[in-house]
Amino acid sequence: MRMYDIIVKKRDGGELTKEEIYFFIEGYTKGDIPDYQASALTMAIYFQGMTQEETATLTQAMVDSGETIDLSAIKGHKVDKHSTGGVGDKVTFIVGPLVASVGIPVAKMSGRGLGHTGGTLDKLESIEGLQIEMTKEKFIENVNKHKLAVAGQTGNLAPADKKLYALRDVTGTVDSLPLIAGSIMSKKLASGADSIVLDVKTGSGAFMKTLDDSENLAREMVNIGNNLGRNTVAVISDMNQPLGFEVGNANEIREAAEILQGKNVEDLRKLSLEIASHMAVLAEVFSTYEEAYQALEANIENGKAFQSLRTLIESQGGNVNMIDDLDKLPKAKYDIEVKANKSGYVSAIDAESIGIAAMYLGAGRATKDDVINHGVGITLNKKIGDRVEEGEALVILHSDEESASDSIGKVQEAYAITEEKVEKPTLIHNIIK
Ligand code: URA
């Protein structure tokens, strides 16, 4: 088999066989196929697309290029969730305990963040003492015992994707639906869960800006999951503004804990219950979405879901006093108001700019060696549709520096205010099964 023939076949719109896809992925991972041929093929895929079968095969080949996590020692149906990424997205900290509180095992492997705000692990490390590095045995023991553990990704998962994603990033081939879907799903499948709920974000602050693109990506991923034997559901949720009111690390943990204590931050609570309900149905613990939703909501009201968060923290060595008394979480030295320069209604909040403003404060990493400052962040006082008067605070910056002019500029850039009344955006656009 020759790589040249595979490139030409795809360039001319042909359908690649399983053997050809494995030849490419195995050869590229080993270093036998050079970057220039891999980039020619990914560009051909960008223009010609892939069939559902080709996409599923590509994904499986990327899973097979490295290690997979064997969760078979965990009793019960394991469910996982994945978000395509958004600003203020602390849903994992709510959904994990919530789902675990009805007895469903959640074995969560997470990563750190680059750019914007921190990743799941960075946010969790706002809690003093909390360990995210653990042996595979300890991880499995914790899930069996407490139904929930969150750990840093171990092992060499989907190395083909790692190499290919880096190549796509510099060759203009990231924006290809089969390649994105295969890339995300290969990592999820290698992590070993039986079922997966995908939170596919849509809007100005999302990877996919239009609803059409988000739905197409969701469909591709759901097809891959189902084709490869994992029940997969995608929730298309809005990312035209940050989720909830808090953006940062410790303040996001605080907001997640408050939701589990029963506070009603409308968009965040609703989306969390939505995702958790689909997970609970996929785990076959409830037969209908409505039944699952009711049981999960009841576990917020009766304190079981919050208790599940406490157990997670204690079992991983974290200081649970910080969650019992949320004022003990890390805090920045200064609170700086960013004020509206006119009266009206908030019509847009560019989530990416808010994320960058938080990063400037130290909540995210500009380079991978940067150290996260857990106490800094942003609290939004106004969201889309809210009335605001000139001079009123749009957000509060939590900063360790007395002046934060770069972040203030970014926030001012992010907010648009109009005279006309504005509707609140729809939160959940579609469910794809
Ligand atoms: N995220 C991924 O993991 N892969 C892509 O291709 C795009 C976004």
From TrEMBL:
Catalysed reactions, semicolon-separated: uridine + phosphate = alpha-D-ribose 1-phosphate + uracil; 2'-deoxyuridine + phosphate = 2-deoxy-alpha-D-ribose 1-phosphate + uracil; thymidine + phosphate = 2-deoxy-alpha-D-ribose 1-phosphate + thymine
Family, per entry: Belongs to the thymidine/pyrimidine-nucleoside phosphorylase family.
PROSITE patterns for the chain: THYMID_PHOSPHORYLASE
A GO molecular function held by the record: thymidine phosphorylase activity
EC number(s) stated in the UniProt entry for this protein: 2.4.2.2
One GO term (biological process): pyrimidine nucleobase metabolic process
Function (record text): Catalyzes phosphorolysis of the pyrimidine nucleosides uridine, thymidine and 2'-deoxyuridine with the formation of the corresponding pyrimidine base and ribose-1-phosphate.
Pfam families noted in UniProt: Glycos_trans_3N, Glycos_transf_3, PYNP_C
Protein name: Pyrimidine-nucleoside phosphorylase
Subunit note: Homodimer.
